[in-house]
Design goal:
There is one protein chain. The protein has about 80 residues and is an all-alpha fold. Helix content is about 75%, strand content about 0%. It is elongated and about 60 Å long. About 5% of the residues are buried.
Length: about 80
């Protein structure tokens, strides 16, 4: 019986979250993590153009290497 109540509560939370996100999106707000600033994107491109590995660029800029790979793919 407790499982039924917890499943129902979880579905209610999910519905409220989705409704709130839809309302924010309708109001023109961005949903999700903000993009990197242009200066950091330039540094990523320069580092990769000089032949550095994504790991080295990430360590130098103190960001995650997945972020470097993401912006490297966008630049291609």
């Amino acid at each position: 019986m407790m499982g039924v109540f917890s499943k129902f509560e979880r579905s209610m939370i999910s519905e409220r979250t989705k409704a709130g996100m839809a309302r924010a999106k309708a109001a023109g707000k961005r949903i999700g993590r903000p993009k990197l600033n242009i200066e950091t994107r330039r540094k990523i491109a320069q580092g990769l153009a000089q032949g550095a590995t994504p790991y080295a660029v990430a360590k130098n800029l103190r960001i995650d290497h997945h972020t470097v790979r993401k912006y490297a793919e966008i630049a291609l």
